[in-house]
Specification:
The structure is a single chain. This protein is mainly beta and 127 residues long. The protein has strands at 3-7, 10-12, 18-25, 33-39, 46-51, 58-60, 69-74, 79-84, 93-103, 106-112, 121-125. The strands form two sheets. Strands 2, 4, 5, 6, 9, 10 and 11 form a seven-stranded mixed sheet that branches. Strands 1-3-8-7 form a four-stranded antiparallel sheet, with no helix packed on it. β9 (93-103) and β10 (106-112) form a beta hairpin. The protein starts with a strand and ends with a strand.
Length: 127
């Protein structure tokens, strides 16, 4: 039974940083790739990044976040992280994590492993 708890969001000024956490439970999280998604008001949910089960490989969905966002994970704590730096107002959204599929330790952000999501954590970037 997949369960995810997203946390770490908040209000931050442009150029600031946040670290989001995705605590997984109810399954062997260390065997699954984890993906982060976000949804801004009036927009569809979009993929942001994913990390393979080993943590060795990551993938970022858009050039807009490459170089600013980094994923990591701590399998001993069944937790994945999204480190967000140099935040911009367009990064404002509710961020969600879930399990995604992987092949040969490469995560596939567009292929969800489950339809279960965390409750989401709000990120607001504003001066």
């Amino acid at each position: 039974q997949f369960q995810f708890a997203d946390s770490g969001g908040g209000l931050v000024q442009p150029g600031g940083s946040l670290k989001l956490s995705c605590a997984a439970s109810g399954f062997s999280a260390d065997k699954y790739a984890i993906g982060w998604f976000r949804q801004a008001p009036g927009k569809e949910r979009e993929g942001v990044s994913c990390i393979s089960s080993s943590g060795r490989n990551t993938w970022y969905a858009a050039d807009s976040v490459k170089g600013r966002f980094t994923m990591s994970r701590d399998n001993a704590k069944n937790t994945a992280f999204l480190h967000m730096n140099n935040l911009k107002p367009e990064d404002s959204a509710v961020y969600f994590c879930t399990a995604v599929r992987q092949l040969n330790d490469q995560c596939a952000l567009r292929e969800l492993r489950t339809d279960t999501w965390g409750q989401g954590t709000q990120v607001t970037v504003s001066s």
